[in-house]
Amino acid sequence: MAYQGFTAEYLGIPAVTRAYTTACVITTAAVQLDLLTPFQLYFNPDLIFRKLQIWRLLTNFLFFGPLGFSFFFNMIFLYRYCRMLEEGSFRGRTADFIFMFLFGGFLMTLFGLFAGLFFLGQAFTIMLVYVWSRRNPYIRMNFFGLLNFQAPFLPWVLMGFSLLLGNSILIDLLGIAVGHVYYFLEDVFPNQPGGKKLLLTPGFLKLVFDPPEEDPNYNPLPEENLNYDPPPEEDAAPAQDQNQPQLP
Asked: Interhelix angle for 121-135 vs 170-183, to 10°?
C-alpha cells in the first residue's frame, strides 16, 4: 500500500522535473556506490572534443557532490523550484520548458569552456530559482526562519549563504547571469517598444512534447466514427406512385 502511494506520488511529479531530479539522484547514488567516479562525469573540453566523450556535456549537470548537506540542500531547491516553474508559468508548455533547459545549459557550457568549471549543476539550479523569483516578485520568502524578503532577492540570499559556507560564488553568479539573460530575452525585451520575441522554441520540440489537444467542443462527422455503419443505398429513381394513372 505504501509502495503504491509512493508510486502515485512519484508519477504525479511533472515530467521534466521528475526526469531531471531522478537523473541527479541516480548519478549521485552511482558515484556513492563506486559504480562511477566524478572523473568520468566532470566537464572537460579536451576529453569532449578530442576523445569524443560527449556524455560529459550532460553528466556535469547531474552530479552535485557526495551525499551530505550540500547535496540535499541543492536537491531540495532544484526539485522545489523546477516543479513550481513547470506547474506555474510553464504549465502546458513542456517544449518551452525544455528549450529553457537547453538554452541555459548551452550558455553555461560556453562559459565553462573559459572558466575552468567542472560541474554546473548548482549554477543550473540557481538559474531556475532566478527565473522563478523574477516571475513571482511579490511572494514573501523566509530563509530558515532568519530572513524575510521578497522573492527576487532569493538568488542573492543563496549566494550569500554559499559564501558563508566557504564556497566560491562564481558558480552562483553564473547561474544568476544566465537566468537574467533568459528572463530578459523572454519576458522583458519582447514587451519593450520595438522589441520582439527572440527565443523561439523549435517546432520539433513542440511536435514531440506539446501535441495539439483535441477540441472538447468538436463533434466528429458520422463518417469519422470507426463504428459507423452507413445506411443502405436507396434507388436513385423515385418510386412510382400507386395512385398515379398508368400510361398506356
From this structure: 40
Residue 97 and residue 131 in contact, taking contact as beta carbons nearer than 8 Å: no
- Report the C-alpha gap between 1 and 23 in whole angstroms: 26
Q: What are the φ/ψ torsions at residue 150 (nearest 5 degrees)?
A: -80, 155
Which pLDDT value is given to residue 245? 47
What is the model's pTM? Answer: 0.82
**Nearest-angstrom CA–CA distance, 140 and 29:** 35
Could you tell me if 190 and 142 are in contact, meaning their C-beta atoms sit under 8 angstroms apart?
no
What are the angstrom distances between the C-alpha of 199 and each of 100, 111, 133, 166, 202?
Answer: 9, 19, 20, 36, 9
Residues 109, 111, 116, 119, CA torsion sign: negative
Q: pLDDT, tens digit, for every residue of 184-237?
A: 999 999 999 988 889 999 999 999 888 766 555 656 555 444 454 555 554 544
Rounded Cα gap, residues 219 and 181, in angstroms: 45
Please name the amino acid found at residue 205. Answer: L
All three cell numbers of 124: 543550473
Q: Note the Cα 53 to chain centre separation in Å.
A: 25
Residue-by-residue DSSP string for 42-73? S--HHHHHTS--TTHHHHTTT---SSSHHHHH
248 has pLDDT over 60? no
CA distance 113 to 107: 10
Q: What is the largest CA-CA distance in the chain?
A: 115
User: Is 78 in contact with 22 (CB distance < 8 Å)?
Assistant: no
Region class of 79: left (phi > 0), else alpha (psi between -120 and 50), else beta: alpha
